[in-house]
Design a protein that fits this description.
The structure is a homodimer of 338-residue chains.
Chain A: H1 8-15, H2 19-26, H3 34-46, H4 53-60, E1 65-70, H5 76-91, E2 95-100, H6 105-117, E3 122-125, H7 135-142, E4 147-150, E5 160-164, H8 166-179, E6 185-189, H9 195-210, E7 220-222, H10 226-238, E8 245-248, H11 251-263, E9 273-275, E10 292-293, H12 297-313, E11 323-326, E12 330-331
Chain A binds a DNA duplex (16 and 16 nucleotides) through residues 7-9, 17-21, 23-24, 27, 31-33, 36, 51-52, 54-61.
DNA sequence: ATGAAAGCGCTAACAG
DNA sequence: CTGTTAGCGCTTTCAT
């Protein structure tokens, strides 16, 4: 058993044949005699030969690696997406390089460079909350590297993408509150430079309009995480706004608000009904359990990866871009129904 | 602006100089004249030249990439670890290839092969719940690829590792229950082939012994996830065991038990006090909030990566292996104190 | 059925 | 200060 790195050359040298023959024998090329194949494979096994994927990448200008840019890994939704990506990529023999943008534009740009430098065969992206300039993605397109956007897509950028129907989901979530008799419904909104932030707000507005509930801009507050939700909730209470419902852009925001309201003695859902968005591990364990939109992270990861692999492996790459819209269903729990 | 992939050759050809000069100019080699440098850099920028990291890897037998084997990404603790790894690696200019073992031995072995094939400069591993054979890691050692184990380490395997003192943390968690007057304390244990499973159980036993509480093997049940915890809790209730405390191997297990007990009308912490382990996002949002051991996932990721990078970059690699033990503090919340 | 040679993109020792 | 050459590990055409 030879230790360290065994190369094709080593095998060739030992067997007194040429590297090309070893290469062919290893991949069962028809030209090679059975004896040679046997000898080569035996030694390869004995010496624990493993092909150098780096050399292969260079030779074939194909790395069998896909890159993923993700805003934040520590997040039920996004980690579910990664899990879906990983599983599909693994089955197809692809590696996954993960880059976390940490919601920073600069880092997203750097990530993109890194992935291109490493000659990944394709890139999966969900843009950061900060991103408003998309030059780095045009760069990817110039390099003809396939790219699929998931969840947080770039508006008007012609590319493959997989999303959920955020507008409709938000609409149904808000409608659900209205159907349960709520009339003064707040919205804790996401950043409006993200399409999903806009869409979820629009869905909220649509439901209100449809029910002929007057829209009060003061009831729409930009708050998209636990801390901001706490502060926003406190502010709302201090201003003694009369509200009976809340639709939040994500679960953690909903939970931050819920806990703050509860601490002030407000009964959920009796006094204020709450609906979140994402349906991660959290929603089932709060008290009351949280009504939420199931965003199907794992599925989004698998679908996005399948789209990407299809574009990577298909002979002609210039077929039209696709947009897949996944189902997002409202999971009704205790926080919204008395 | 040339699209597609620009190489050093292209630049050299255009400027009618040799590739080596371009290469040197690009890295600001002192030998090269200022004019040449300027010309090269200008064209490189104009043509958006980006070095091919794959070619570099091959040349330098160094990929600037580290591999991570992680049991499950969708898990607050593990995703925190990844986040820590990512941040440190990124700052040091290293890429991160993530492989999920999904708690399967076979997949862990395959992951190891993949990472070696891709010539990663080092590997971070937390072993799967199934793993009892460690041959694949000896393989890594033969290849002289640095390796650091985090959290779930291999017993008696001589390697760098970063862990928390599971035994002590479990001991303190259990002692905390005892100090709050609990005497019939159950333990929902993790798989005993994992060191952390053993250690946490041993810590529990140590605290009981110290308090001269008789150990009842029937109160130790192997249950390490939400579902198993529900079933175990139901079984316990059906058998009408008299218990007043529970120490669970992780938070999700604690929460599964807590919810089941609550549904049967048992008051937490009044009738049964509960302590979990990990302290993720979940523990602060349950009702009552969950007392738990803070496992410092992010820090574990950063420390493990620093150890790995140190071994990768240090000239002599044969300095003694280190074991770093991180502090794990008990975060007391409502579930354990009346 | 096998070998020799070239080349993927880059760097570095050696020459001038 | 710059060019030539060789080689990282592998595949593949073209010879033989």
């Amino acid at each position: 058993m030879k230790s360290g790195l065994v190369t094709i050359k080593d095998l060739a040298h030992e067997l007194k044949i040429s590297p090309s023959t070893v290469s062919r024998a290893l991949k069962d090329h028809p030209d090679i005699s059975v004896e040679t194949k046997l000898a080569v494979n035996e030694l390869a096994k004995k010496w624990n030969y493993q092909p150098n994927a780096v050399a292969l990448s260079l030779k074939q200008s194909r790395s069998n690696t896909i890159g993923v840019i993700i805003p934040e890994i520590v997040h039920f939704f996004f980690s579910s997406v990664i899990s879906g990506i990983e599983d599909v990529a693994y089955d197809a023999g692809f590696n996954v390089i993960i880059c976390q943008s940490n919601e920073k534009y600069d880092r997203e740009v750097a990530n993109t460079r890194t992935l291109l430098a490493n000659r990944v065969d394709g890139i999966l992206v969900s843009i950061s909350k900060e991103t408003t300039d998309f030059g780095h993605f045009y760069n990817v397109r110039d390099r003809v590297v396939p790219m699929v956007f998931y969840d947080r897509v770039v508006p008007d950028f012609y590319a493959d993408q997989v999303i959920i129907d955020d507008l409709d989901a938000a609409y149904r979530a808000t409608k659900h509150l209205i159907e349960n008799g709520r009339k003064k419904i707040m919205h804790f909104a996401g950043p409006q430079n993200l399409l999903i932030g806009q869409q979820r707000k629009n869905g909220y507005l649509k439901a209100l309009k449809e029910a002929r509930i007057e829209i009060d801009e003061n009831l729409i507050i930009e708050a998209d995480n636990f801390e901001k939700a706490r502060l926003a909730a406190i502010k709302v209470l201090d201003e003694k706004k009369a509200i009976d419902g809340l639709f939040a852009v994500n679960d953690l925001t909903a939970i931050g608000a819920m806990q703050t309201l509860q601490k002030r003695g407000i009964k959920i859902p009796d006094e204020i009904a709450i609906v979140g968005f994402s349906d991660g591990r959290l929603s089932g364990i709060t008290n009351p359990t949280l009504t939420s939109v199931d965003q199907h992270g794992y599925e989004m990861g698998t679908v996005a990866t399948e789209m990407l692999l299809k574009r990577i492996t298909s002979a002609k790459k210039d077929y039209p871009f696709e947009t897949k819209v996944l189902n997002a269903n409202l999971i009704v729990r205790e926080s919204s129904v008395v």
